[in-house]
Amino acid sequence: MDLMTHSSAFLLPEIPSDHRPAPTYALVVLNQRLPRFAPLLWKHAQVRVCADGGANHLYDEMPQLLPDEDALDVQKRYKPDAIRGDMDSIRKDVLEFYSNLGTKIIDESHDQDTTDLHKCVAFICDLTPNLEKSNLCILVTGALGGRFDHEIGNINVMYRFSTIRIILLSDDCLIHLLPRTHHHEIHIHSSFEGPHCGLVPIGMPSRSTSTTGLQWNLTETEMRFGGLVSTSNIVIAEKVTVQSDADLLWTISIKKP
After folding, report:
1. 3-class DSSP assignment, residue 8
2. Which among 27, 54, 124, 244 could bridge 209 via Cys, Cβ 3.0 to 4.6 Å?
3. Are strands 104-107 and 248-254 parallel, antiparallel or unpaired?
4. Which residues, in sequence order, are bridge partners of residue 240?
5. pLDDT tens digits, 46-94
6. Beta strand 136-141 with 24-29: parallel, antiparallel or unpaired?
């Protein structure tokens, strides 16, 4: 079984260089408040897409995150490559502002069967057909908080696009999928993440999950809803390993500055 490595280096000012090829980051901004580290995510991303009302948050809140700079200059500089969705949430003034700056506007109001995040992930995959998809990492802000059905829908997108690295981010935590097709090494940056973490089976119960690097490691442990789910665990090493016969969600806390 192949090894898949994971790192939250996108929360560092500079991406560390090592023998592995640097990830290609894309950023999706959904319709919830921007996290405090949104300018850092923007800096690392090569593609930036707003989902409908996410453009309102980008327009209103990015200047608040950079209070020492002129607000209009910030709004012009942090211009998304595209805005995609059913256009029921974006304000007219925001739509006009970004459209005049050359942002691609993609109205998907005819498609009510997929979420805004699904539309944005599909757009990024279509936009980058020549990329090695195993090297693509999609960072998503605004996916957590707000309505619970929206959160579940966003987690479902990770499951539907299980071959693509998708990371959901808030000020408090990050979540990504650990596919059962791989062994996993998670490299921990303790300066800004942890120590609290969790592993949640998704799609099906896990008959056997084993870990290293946690205060309460799992050893061929069964996990399922209605039984054991690993919550409020603690990272105690710089590397966590996970092996499971089921897809798992990995979540780890993000420290306040």
Report:
1. coil
2. 244
3. unpaired
4. 186
5. 999 999 899 999 999 999 999 999 999 999 999 999 999 888 889 999 9
6. parallel
Going by C-alpha positions, the residue among 218, 219, 212, 216 that lies closest to residue 240 is 212
Residue-wise pLDDT for 140-161, tens only, equals 999 998 889 989 999 999 999 9
Q: Give long-range contacts, CB 8 A cutoff, 24+ apart: 122-131.
A: 123/49, 123/82, 123/84, 124/26, 124/28, 124/47, 124/49, 125/161, 125/164, 127/47, 128/24, 128/26, 128/47, 131/24
Which pair of structure tokens corresponds to residue 109?
């109001």
Question: Residue 62, by phi and psi: left (phi above 0), alpha (psi -120 to 50) or beta?
Answer: alpha
Q: How many angstroms separate the CA atoms of 251 and 159, rounded? A: 15
> Tokens at residue 136, please?
């693509």
How far from 37 is each of 42, 84, 144, CA to CA, in Å?
9, 23, 15
Query: What are the tokens at 218?
Result: 């799992």
One-letter amino acid for residue 25 of the chain: Y
**Helix 54-65 vs helix 92-100: crossing angle, to nearest 10:** 80
Degrees (nearest 5) of the Cα angle 125, 141, 81? 50
* 65: region left, alpha or beta (phi > 0 left; psi from -120 to 50 alpha): alpha
Q: What predicted TM-score, i.e. pTM, was given to this entire model?
A: 0.93
